Amino acid sequence: MTKKQLNESVEYLKKKGFDTPEIGIVLGTGLGQLVEEIENSIEAHYNHIPYFPLATVEFHSGKLIYGTIGDKTVVVMQGRFHLYEGYDFLDITYPIRVMHQLGIKKLFVSNAAGAINLDYKKGDIMLIEDHINLQGGSPLAFKNVAEFGDRFVDMSEPYDLNMRNKIEAIAKKEGITLQKGVYASVVGPQLETKAEYRMLKILGADAVGMSTVPEVIVANHLRLPIMAVSVLTDECDPDNLLPVNIAEIIEIAGKTEPKMIKLFKELMKEI
Question: Where is the Nucleoside phosphorylase domain positioned along the sequence (predicted)?
Answer without folding.
Answer: 23-267
